[in-house]
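Q: I'm teaching a short session on how sequence maps to structure, and I want students to see two examples side by side rather than one. Could you give me a first protein with its sequence written out and its structure tokens following it? Keep the formatting plain so it prints cleanly on a handout.
A: Of course. Example one:
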Amino acid sequence: MSHDEHPEHPEHPEHPEPPTVAGRYVATVAVSEEAAKDRPRLHLSDPTVRTFVQLLLNVLLVSVMNFTVWFAITFYVYLQTRSVFATGMISGIFLVATVATGVWFGSLVDHHRKKTVMQVSAVISLVLYAASLTLYLTTPASTWRDPTSVRLWVFVLLLMGGVIAGNVRSIALPTVVTALFDERLRDRANGLVGTVMGISFLVTSVISGLLVGSSGMLWVLILAVGILAVALVHLQTIRIPDVLQHAAAEGESKRVDLRGTIAVVRSIPGMIALIVFAALNNLLGGVFMALMDAYGLSMMSVQAWGLVWGGLSALMIMGGLLITRTGLSSNPVRLILLVNIAMWTVTVVFPLRDSVVWLVAGLAVYMVAMPYVEASEQTVLQKVVPYERQGRVFGFAQSVEMAASPLTAFLISPLTQFFFIPFMTDGAGARWIGDWFGTGQERGIALVFVVTAFLGLLLTGYALSSKYYRLLSRRYQEA
């Protein structure tokens, strides 16, 4: 937030003249750097940090398999059916289920011990993956090539159910950070969470493509069942600190209490606006979720696409490690918006050429920046939301933020398949801009990306100039 919004500086009454813009910026940076030097860091010699790392390792094991299943079934269905519509439907199923379960999962996190919630989540995923493996082994290979096959979609639903069950952990983890760490360390701990998510994407991206390319879904499912079983045993051996031995909302009624959660969110100035911004951002982001695999696979083999995502995920790890090392800005609310501007700008540029290099370069910037947005939002919520309500608020935020994405995923796939692809193949778009933009299926998808990114820039620019941004920034600073 600019100091223009706080013109009074009583601690310096001897300087009545307002400083220049450059002077204010330099002073702010100097103070921020000095504060960063004085802030504590995470050290493995601390028993709390060691326990947290053990929990992160367990989360990593489960996340790798959940993401691998999700990526693999998307790759597999596209390669078997060659249907953009089918891959978009898989994304839509995931997003609808995430929206529908977010508040309920958050209530479970608040009303039960974190370790118990994580164990039950892993058990459910394990059972569903085992059922999927049985179905896969008993189904003729030709069935998977028919996008209208009932068995195919039962298979998809079983697998996505296992993935969705893992969402409980993503809600529980930021509340664990709140319980274990002082607010001066939470941004760095959130960076470590981002690092783990990056590692899971790295491993997932490499192995999902290779596994699908070599054996279809067989080894994906065998590994999923085996690693989930290992993760369950490992979690049982972790000794949990006293602060996590009890439910955050112990003594309260175990009902979901959506009304009370909304009241908490509304009581925080600017919080509703932040959640709505994230929802609209995800509305646009759902376009990439639905179409990116089809776009990438139109340029390279599934093995190469998986390896590309493996390399890109290493950059996500780098972003998380940078946060762990340096922390975040003194105003993470502003950081969320500035990073979004950078991400949308890159997304306007990379689809302009039918080039693997442009695609990979654009995604590289996106992957480095992503942990900053996630860690910033978590840090804001951890500071301004009461601990006993955080599970439900994180779940509510997840549901609302992603509520728009299913609409995008379900609509954009047929819209792309039946309008934008013909438009850029032999339609008016191919005649108007085909000379420099290119023509064909992948250029139809690229045009969707460019239009979406321009809308994202407009949305973020509006948010950065709004009063809600200033209100939430002030509340964070005063909390």
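Q: Perfect. Now a second example for contrast.
A: Example two:
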Amino acid sequence: MNNTYENYAGLLGGLKHAGMLFYIINPYENVFEKYEDVPDYQLQVWFSFFVLIALENAIIYAKKEKSFRLNDHVTSLSHWILQETGRIIFRGAEYYAYISIYQNLRIWNLSWNSVWTWYVTAIAVDFCYYWVHRANHEVLFLWAHHQVHHSSEEFNLVVGLRQSVLQHWCSFLFYLPLAFFIPPSHFVAHHQFNLIYQLWIHTTVIHDLGPFEWIFNTPKHHRVHHGCNLYCLDTNYGGVLILWDRLFGTFAEERKNEEIIYGLVVNPQSYNPLFLQVFYVASMIGRSLGMGNSRDKLAVYWKGPSWQPGLPRLGLDEFKVNVTSRIKYNPRMSNWQNFYIVLHFSLVLYTHVQLYVEKFETQHILSGATIINNACALIIIGLLFDRSKFANILELIRCCSYLYFLKNIQNSLVTYTYAASCCLWIYDIFKFLAVW
């Protein structure tokens, strides 16, 4: 009974971090001398953010603005699980270069316990984020990873979780100049705060926030950024502050008389998270190989996505696709398939949460097998949404593999679920063969 109360108290206690979503943070309570002492703020905020997602869906349902799309929601969450798994395993390894520069090459010692250092860091990190984000759109090599975040044809809070697995390994380079004067503990904290703030601005239920719009990035501004209409391209890169866009000429106002079309200019017809993570990289390499000379082959990687030989680095608007309407990719699924996907995605989410628990050793071979099973499950769920002809046999193989390798690390109910799933797919395959 006490454990039950403690669990409920822990869940409700998670709401106390809700202010972090809006950068409402007490600097005196979040200043640390050592970077190792900085909490995992992203972990702390997840419960509050998922409550916000539920609230957004309730508002949309009540207003009857549009229907809920399971395939798009699950795909965005699949990218989040893959990205978060990498973040948990590597435990901030990308910060090591920053820490090394600060320890050996810093030119100015800002006091770690000064509130002024806290505010300077907040502004400096956001300034760097503007250039990180702008580069991710204006350099094809970086865009090949960042495009994952823009691949949804919807715009909602869950899209904020749709991230590239590899993007942060490239982006962290833009923050390294801060290591010459900003303590690592401050940087690690504000790097998290900056990204957390950007979660809530992925929504259509908030329209205009008045004077707030002049200074801060808001859903209104970020809707433009996510649009593939011609006027939306390469605009509104700011993280927390929209002032950077106003200052550097990349700001665009939302047009009331033009519906924003979300997604990539040429959007992939797939919900397979692995495909969505890598297809643009393959396209980029193919595009480079197709160029007529070595100079252009290399230029493909560092010039913009719309560049062509003879054009400016970012291309010209007259040669860009102007998307004005789109039929969303939405293959129909049977009710039993939707139920199956929800069930197995819930199992993936359950085992993913175990990664956050200290006793769950990520280096253990069984833990590694669990991570592989989760990744395979998310990929096959995407194939099911795509109605791939290979999805049923691949899912049968995955479920059988789970029963063989992993049945001893989960409770019996999960094992029975996988056993029943095997029977279901055997029946489905034989049913298909009988008709074929």
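Q: What should students look for in example two?
A: Point them to this: The first helix runs from residue 2 to 13. Also worth mentioning: The chain has a mean pLDDT of 91.
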